[in-house]
């Protein structure tokens, strides 16, 4: 049985990936510092899969703790989620973001180099494309100057991995996520935003639940079908499965280069108003919202061309937007009872 280290394994995407790994027969060891989640998620994963993953509360910024972990644990692959991810916050706290997102990455890669470990999967983001000139966005689209510190940590993170994979024979894949939403169909794990949500779906569900008065729709004067911005929303379970597919590609040595990157999206562009309408329809609920000005830094349209990921990873999305928005609402109701 292959043993996989999942850093940030108690976070939103990490926890769903741990479930899928265990379902597929992988042994999982989690590192998480609980900075943006709670230990309860470990119990929830155990309830869903029937297996308690090995858990280490380690802060990856502490090099000696990372070293100690690898001294005592051999792993066959690493999926690295642990990172700060709030765009707005990153602009006010650049040093915290660079320290956390780079040091953790570098310490993990140094251990892989020193111990001759292989198979590294990195959480990247479609933010590396900025406002792409052509749609849908293929992997050939150029990486544009980052608009945020967070985005820069993803761009430079990819470069660190690329250089390392070449110099030290480490095979790696970066997955460039579009907009991950939803939760596990068991309603036992999902997104747990701290404070006022910045992302669209948790803001919608909290508004529907009465925790927020109304949703602000940022701009309806974009050159899109209904004037609101368009994104590619992907169910977090579909996204989690893309990690298993990428891991298999590396373990089976099917990769074509030591460092590869793939777009992970649904391939469908949905406007903010379409999301609101679909949410209202599938959950039979009316949402309070108003149109306000554009949000600074927002791109107009972003959705993925998934052809390369579909073919090379032998993976595709299976969960509809309707189902995802139903799950997101059920998850919200469970938080507020
Ligand atoms: C942002 C980040 C992205 C990051 C992702 C997940 C940018 C450019 N991108 O994506 O790198 O991976 O978050 O953390 O910052 N919206 C509203 N009202 C709201 C909230 C959002 O109208 O209250 C709109 C936004 O303007 C946007 C869409 O909903 O058009 C999606 O927003 P959001 O969920 O924040 O994701 P992104 O901005 O696409």
How much helicity do the residues have? 40-55%
CATH architecture classification of the domain at 3-181 and 234-265: 3-Layer(aba) Sandwich
| The named CATH superfamily of the domain at 3-181 and 234-265 | NAD(P)-binding Rossmann-like Domain
Assembly type of the chains comes to single chain
Poorly predicted segments: none
Question: What is the N-to-C order of secondary-structure elements (H for helix, E for strand)?
Answer: EHEHEHEHHEHEEHEEEHEEHEHH
**What proportion strand?**
15-25%
C-alpha geometry: globular
Spatial order of the strands in the main sheet? 3-2-1-4-5-6-11
CATH class of the domain at 3-181 and 234-265: Alpha Beta
Q: Outline the biggest β-sheet.
A: 7 strands, parallel
Question: Mind explaining what this structure looks like?
Answer:
The structure is a single chain. This protein has a domain at 3-181 and 234-265: NAD(P)-binding Rossmann-like Domain (Rossmann fold, 3-Layer(aba) Sandwich). It is of the alpha/beta class and 337 residues long. The model has no long low-confidence stretch (mean pLDDT 97). The relative contact order is 0.14. Strand 5, helix 6 (149-168) and strand 6 form a beta-alpha-beta unit. The chain has helices at residues 12-23, 40-49, 63-72, 87-92, 94-115, 149-168, 200-208, 236-251, 272-283, 307-312, 321-336; strands at 3-7, 27-32, 54-57, 77-80, 120-125, 172-177, 179-181, 215-218, 230-231, 233-235, 259-264, 270-271, 289-292. Residues 85, 87, 125, 127, 151, 179, 198-200, 203, 215-218, 229, 231, 272, 295, 297-299 line the site of uridine-diphosphate-N-acetylglucosamine (UD1). Residues 85, 87, 125, 127, 151, 179, 198-200, 203, 215-218, 229, 231, 272, 295, 297-299 line the site of uridine-diphosphate-N-acetylglucosamine.
